[in-house]
Amino acid sequence: MTFQEIKDRYSAAPFRPFEIVLTNARHIRVNHPEFMALSPDEDTVVVYENDGHLTIDVPLVIAVKELKNGARPRKGKR
After folding, report:
1. What is the distance, to the nearest Å, from the Cα of residue 61 to the centroid of all Cα atoms in its chain?
2. Which residues span the domain enclosing 37?
């Protein structure tokens, strides 16, 4: 995953919520571009969450997934 691919999702018009998937299988949701910051050196991305923020090293990102219609992923069948 490259910084440019993350930047393209971040600056898409209209913006669509997406998830960043890390090498440890963690999914980080980005609901709005105001909840994310891109470093000028293109090495890190900061995502702001309710309980603080996460600084993510770009080489640890394995995928960026757009969420269909901004919907949250389902947790499974009941």
Report:
1. 9
2. 3-70
Neighbours of 20 (CB within 10 A): 24
What pLDDT digit, counting tens, does each position of 54-75 carry? 999 999 999 999 887 655 656 6
pTM of the model: 0.81
Interatomic CA distance for residues 18 and 72, integer angstroms: 10
What is the domain-level CATH number for residue 22? Answer: 2.30.30.100
How is residue 67 annotated by DSSP?
P
In a domain, 75, yes or no: no
pLDDT in tens, 14-31: 999 999 999 999 999 999
Q: 9 — phi, psi (to 5°)?
A: -65, -40
State the amino acid at position 13 in one-letter form. A
Give the count of domains, the chain.
Answer: 1
Residue whose pair of structure tokens reads 């669509």 in the numeric block: 16
